[in-house]
Every structure is written in structure tokens, then in C-alpha cells.
Amino acid sequence: MDFNVKRLAADAGTFLSRAVQFTEEKLGQAEKTELDAHLENLLVRAENTKQWTERIMKQTEVLLQPNPNVRLEEFVYEKLEKKAPTRMNNHELLGQSMIESGNEFGPGTAYGNALIKCGETEKQIGGAERELIHSAAINFLTPFRNFLEGDFKTILKERKLLQVKRLDLDAAKTRLKKARMTDARAAAEQELRMTQSEFDRQAEITRLLLEGVSSTHAHHLRCLNDFVEAQATYYAQCYQYMVDLQKQLGSFPSSFSNNNQSSVSGGASSISVPTIPVSASLPSVSAGHGSSTASGGFSELRSSNGSRKARVLYDYDAASSSELSLLADEVITVSSVPGMDSDWLMGERGNQKGKVPITYLELLN
Predict the structure, then answer these.
(1) Distance CA 259, CA 252 (A)
(2) Per-residue burial over 75-97, b = 16 or more CB atoms within 10 Å of its CB, e = otherwise
(3) What is the pLDDT of residues 325-351, one digit of tens each?
(4) Percentage of the chain with pLDDT > 70?
(5) Which tens digits make up the pLDDT trace of 33-83?
(6) Cα–Cα distances in Å, from 30 out to 20, 143, 162, 171, 193?
(7) Contact at 8 Å (CB) between 116 and 97?
(8) What are 249-267's pLDDT values in tens digits?
(9) What percentage of the chain carries pLDDT values higher than 90?
């Protein structure tokens, strides 16, 4: 019991000594031991790293999920250690609406068929967006969060402990200055040596931790490269999906394009839809997505110089004698001719032969 009372009294005395020292420093009535310039610079760098890491994390989360309500819900589920409910993103919702409306208008109609194709593409983009968010969460946001919740908290703890050791050191220096009796001065000198040793030891621990921020920067740089790579893959996928869709919609039945042109009357000039060039340097979209698989089949047909059976997706009226008119759902034979445009194949129906657009065809096994 007496031991506990003495310990509490000693702790209270130490706390009071630190409080007095801190107050007198603020009032300019006591000297303060300054940290060396290198340690001060390390402390500033660590604080800047913490602040900018928080800011980058916040803006990345806003980029990946613009809806603040959804972000708040995900945060709550994360704190409760529960899985947030899976919901369709905006691209998937748009795609679903397009597909449903296309089925309502009729897949056999030009407009209904176009809506379904647009809807399928929007859902593919939605899937690519999910992959981007998943990759960014694992390879970018998680390492940043681990630094804030792990390494920096350790740095903060040791920095506060260094501040306490400095207050003890300066309080010991003050007591030594005030000591007049020989015994009191000897005790003050011993206390100063002890507090100086503890301060130096804590300063070294803090310095080693702060120098580790360089490794954190190197790690975050690798995470940044991963994030950029994930974004590049995402945008390349979206670009390829839209180029494939544009090709399909760009050669729709002539009656469809005539309807568009007839709506422009009174001498107004028609609006031309720009064609986006396909860059061969873009990453290829993974197999398993419908349009990419179809394109691969046509590429194999062109390289083999053979022939394949193909089903016609919708009607096509030949624009010249070199083309072959098509009827939806009929099966024709198609082959590749050297020098022919990559968007066309040679089609055969009995004795009839002529060019046909590949966007109107589905290759059969």
C-alpha cells in the first residue's frame, strides 16, 4: 500500500514538473532544448507525408465512388466489419434499362437491336469499372491506409514520447541551475545525466522511424504505378468496347440511316458521326466479352483464307452491284478476299455473290 502511494506521488510530481516546464517555456521563462536540424526536417517530412497521403486517398475515393452517400455506407460497413450489399453501378443500370427497352421494342427491329447492343456494352464497361475499383482498393488505397493507421501512428507515439523526454531533460537542467547545496547539486547532476541518456535514446528511436518514411515513399511509388496501370487497362477496355459498338451501329440497315437523314429537313446539313481510329498499341480486351470474341473469329477467318458459315443478324440492302443484300436469320457462306477492307467479307448465297459488312454477321461453328 505504501509503495503504491509513493509511486502515485512520484508520478504526480513528474507530471507537475513537466507541466511547469512546458508552461514556463510557453511564457519564455525557461530554456528549451532544440532538436537537431536533421531530426526536425525528418519530422516535417513525415507530417507532410501524412497530410498528402490523406488527401490523395480522399480524392481517389471520390473518383472511384462519386456518390457521398454510398461512400458513407461503405465506410460504416467497413467499421462494422461487414460486407456492403452488392449493387449495380451506373453503367450497369443504364445497360439494364437499354436491354429491357430493346426487348420491349423488339430485338428484330433496328432500334431494339441497337438498344440491346448498347446495353450490353454499357454492362461490359460497368464490369471493367468494378475491376478498376477492386484493383485500386487492394493495390493503392490499402497500402496508403496501412501507413496512416500503422507506421504513422507509431511515429506519432514515439514523437510524443520524445517530447516528454525533452521536458524531463529541461526540467532537470532547471533544477540543477537552482541547486545550491552540495547534496542537492549532486542529485541534480545525476538526474540530468539520466534524463539526457533517456532523451538521446528516444531521439535515436524516433530518428530511425522517421528515416523509414523514405521506404514508405518508395512503396507508395510502386502502388502509384499499379494504380496507373489499372486505369490504363480500364480506359483501354472502355475504348475498345465503344469502338466495337460503333462499328456495329455504323453499318445498320440503310432504312435506319435514311430515317435519320429524313429528319433533317429545310436544307439543314446532315450531322456526321466521327469514326474513332482503332490504335493497335492498346492492350487487348480479355476474351469472354462478346464483341472481342467475334472480332477474333473474323480475324482468324481473314488470316486462314478459308470460308465459314455465318448467320445474318438483320436485313441489309446492297448499296451497289458489288454488294450482296441480306435477310435477317438466313445463313450464308463468307470468305476473305486479299485486299478487301477489314470491315467486309465476300458473301455467297447459291449463285449470288457480293461484299457483306461483318457487323451484320455472326460466325457459326
Answers:
(1) 11
(2) eeeeeeeeeeeeeebebbebbee
(3) 998 888 999 998 888 888 889 999 988
(4) 78
(5) 888 999 999 999 999 999 999 999 999 999 988 877 776 776 676 766 777
(6) 10, 43, 18, 9, 19
(7) no
(8) 876 654 444 444 444 334 3
(9) 47
Q: Nearest CA to 335 among 352, 311, 310? A: 310
Confirm whether pTM is higher than 0.70.
Answer: no
CB contact set of 36 (below 8 Å; sequence gap of 6+): none
What CA–CA distance (Å, rounded) separates 195 from 100?
76
Q: Is 29 helix (H, G, I), strand (E, B) or coil?
A: coil
Which of 24, 69, 54 lies closest to 174, judged by CA?
24
Grid coordinates given for 8? 502515485
Side-chain half-sphere CA neighbours of 105 within 13 A = 13
Q: Which helix (H) or strand (E) holds 333?
A: strand 331-335
Nearest CA to 129 out of 274, 237, 225, 265 is that of 237
Spatial distance between the Cα atoms of 196 and 192, rounded to a whole number of angstroms = 6
> Partners of 333 in the beta sheet?
309, 348
Helix/strand/coil percent split, the chain, to 5: 65, 10, 25
- What is the reported pLDDT for 189? 92
Q: Coil, strand or helix: which one is 335?
A: strand
CA Rg value for the chain: 36
DSSP string covering 267-289? TPPPPPPPPPPPPTTSPPPPTTS
The rounded distance, in Å, linking the Cα atoms of 151 and 110 is: 60
- Distance (Å, whole) CA 115 – CA 98: 5
Name the strand (E) or helix (H) holding 147: none
Round to whole Å and give the CA distance between 150 and 105.
Answer: 56
Backbone angles phi, psi at 282, to 5 degrees: -70, 150
142-161 residue pLDDT tens: 999 999 999 999 999 999 99
C-alpha cell at 143: 497500402
Q: Which of 218, 206, 199 is nearest to 155 (CA)?
A: 206
